[in-house]
Amino acid sequence: MNSHGRWAHSAHPRRTSFRAGNAGLPSIDGDDARQQRPLQSPPSLDRILTDPSERLEFAATRRDFLRFLSLTGAAVAFGSCASASPFTIPVNDMKLHFYPYTLELKHTFTIATSSRTTTPDMMVQVEKDGITGYGEASMPPYLGESQDSARAFLEKVDLSAFPDPFQLEDVLRAIDQIMPGNPAAKAAVDIALHDWVGKKMGQPWYRIWGLDPAKTPVTSFTIGIDTKEVVRQKTKEAGIYKVLKVKLGRDTDKMMIETIREVTDTPVCVDVNQGWKDKTVALEMVEWLATKNIMFVEQPMPKEQIDDIAWLREKSPLPIIGDESVQRLPDVRKAWGVYDGINVKLMKCTGMREAYKMITLARALDMKVMLGCMTETSCAISAAAQLSPLVDWADLDGAVLIKNDLFSGATIVDGKVTLPDRPGIGVVPLK
Ligand SMILES: [Mg+2]
Fold first, then answer.
1. 273 C-alpha vs ligand 1 centroid, how far in Å?
2. pTM of the model
3. 95 in a domain, yes or no?
4. Among candidate residues 42, 63, 90, the one where a domain is terminated
5. Residue 134 included in any domain
6. Do 215 and 85 fall within a single domain?
7. How many domains does the chain have?
């Protein structure tokens, strides 16, 4: 167990698994058994990261194998199958580690479709050259991923197969193609690789992307569906925030907004999470909300009701933003003409790299952009925050909503996203 009392699991059991009998190649897979440790009796993560014998053994086997190739002339023959598992040539010693973690929420979190007190999470680390990159997959159950599915995906990721971790385009495209779905698990690797590359370069990503950290937006604070008393209390607690994000989509919608307006005039955006089913009722609600200092309405109706949402948008006095409708890059083009803007989240779109592309495309289509999150530690929040100077609105309160954060990183100062002046995604593990 490591210092946080958690277990870790190394993710690339086939790193040097050249098995006897395969294309006449020698067996040099001495570390296969060592790599495939049972999950129930894991080694210390700290020991995995610091044990030089692992790296020495790997280096020795790789060197021996390459010498064998040069002596036998087998390199050409081997090259023809080098891209097929399990015959991947190990070309760098980058390691991937991951372990499950459960986020504990400060308050029961209720939206139109579900209610919960915890969020399953998977923490990821990549390690090379003494530099550790951190990543994270947050997986609210209603989105379909789990710690089991994330582990199954991450066990298929072999970072040693890529010649240069700086080639993020190729590396992340290949990881995306391992299997469909799994956007949060993919985001965890994407974030960890970006963190590692940024640290190796000695620069934060907002600087690599040429963004001004002074242009970060204010972030909203989320108030879930709850009783009048709890909503009033949460509104009072949200005093430092310049924008509130209020969850709607049940028959208590007007009570929620009226209760908040009894406490504060702070601008509010609302998120219906597909909760309104009838377009005329939705229009009545939007017109009522427009009299209550509401900034925009997020995902008012089920994502399948595209024509109804486009109809609503045409008549709506408030901007209509797509969230559940807009998962990945191709969805941005489909959202044009249906929504005024999109909500980009790293856990939906496989991470920082695709999020940057989605924001760029939305801007080219003259659409508004919101940067959102799940309940997450400061790891994924800080990764998203690197992009925040590019967007109109941020909803990056995910780490504020949990009791057991693991990192310090981007913070919220006087309601505004504030970027640390540290390389990569700018996070430091909490002791
Ligand atoms: Mg939403």
1. 6
2. 0.79
3. no
4. 90
5. no
6. no
7. 2
Q: Which domain holds residue 321?
A: 207-429
Distance 100 CA to ligand 1 centre (A): 25
In this structure, is residue 290 part of a structural domain?
Answer: yes
Whether 158 is in a domain gets the answer: no
DSSP secondary structure of 369-425: EEEE--S--HHHHHHHHTTGGG-SEE---TTTTBS---EE-SEEETTEEE--S-SBT
Beta pairing class for 131-138 and 115-128: antiparallel
Ligand 1 geometric centre to CA of 324 (Å): 7
How far away, in angstroms, is 272 Cα from ligand 1 center?
7
**What are the pLDDT tens digits along the chain (431 aa)?**
344 434 445 544 433 222 222 332 223 233 333 333 333 333 333 443 344 333 333 333 333 323 323 333 333 333 333 333 334 444 579 999 999 999 999 988 777 677 889 999 999 999 999 999 999 999 999 889 999 999 999 999 999 989 899 999 999 999 999 999 999 999 999 999 999 999 999 999 999 999 999 999 999 998 989 999 999 999 998 888 999 999 999 999 999 999 999 999 999 999 999 999 999 999 999 999 999 999 999 999 999 999 999 999 999 999 999 999 999 999 999 999 999 999 999 999 999 999 999 999 999 999 999 999 999 999 999 999 999 999 999 999 999 989 999 999 999 999 999 999 999 999 999 97
> Ligand 1 centroid vs 130 CA: distance in angstroms?
38
Final residue belonging to a domain, choices 35, 67, 90: 90
Compute the distance from residue 51 Cα to the ligand 1 centre, in Å: 43
d(CA 323, CA 400): 21
Encoded amino acid at 402, one letter: I
Residue 23 C-alpha to ligand 1 middle, in angstroms? 52
Say how many Å lie between the CA of residue 136 and the centre of ligand 1. Answer: 20
- The CATH code of the domain that includes 245 is 3.20.20.120
Cα-to-centroid distance, 298 and ligand 1 (Å): 6
Output b/e per residue, 167-197; b: 16+ Cβ within 10 A: ebeebbeebbebeeebbbbbbbbbbbbbbbb
Q: 242 CA distance to ligand 1 centroid (A)?
A: 19
